Amino acid sequence: MNASNWSSATAPDLRIFRDIAHEAFANLPEEFRSRCDGIVIAIEYFPSEAMPESVGAEDPFDLLGLFEGLGLAQTGDNAVTGQQPNRVWLFRRPILDYWAAYEESLGVVITHVLVHEIGHHFGLSDEDMEAIEADG
Predict the structure, then answer these.
(1) What is the pTM of this model?
(2) N or C: which end of the chain has fewer CB within 10 A?
(3) Which of 120, 108, 119, 87 is closest to 24 using CA atoms?
(4) Strands, E, within the chain: which ranges?
């Protein structure tokens, strides 16, 4: 993108973030996506006050995403009665701050956060998640 295109550009809103996240999910390996039935991808401007505390983060800008629910590591393939759907949260403002500080495209950052948070659903290691991102 040349300078004149950036001069009128604004930060992507929640709708654009959602579109990028859904495109990133669609580009992940099929065997990964096929085991994600029922996971809701939620996009918010910022984490709630309790969310950073729940994972020991002192600064809400340190929380780019969050997995909420009982993943396969806890339940196996069996759903728990009365369980809320598993949810992956992506937080616009912290992601934008991270994106501005590093030399990665916004799509790469969102994909990384998405894979990392879905990885918690599976109980995956960081190495497993890096391999999935490399295949996607």
Answers:
(1) 0.82
(2) N
(3) 108
(4) 40-44, 65-68, 87-91
**What contacts 24+ positions apart, CB below 8 Å, involve 123-128?**
123/71, 123/72, 123/73, 123/74
Domains in the chain, please, with CATH? 19-76+84-135 (3.30.2010.20)
Contact of 91 with 44, CB cutoff 8 Å: yes
Lookup: tokens for 52: 């950073």
d(CA 67, CA 114): 9
Phi, psi dihedrals of residue 58, rounded to the nearest 5°:
-85, -30
Please choose, from the candidates 6, 5, 13, 29, the residue with its C-alpha nearest in 3D space to the C-alpha of residue 111: 29
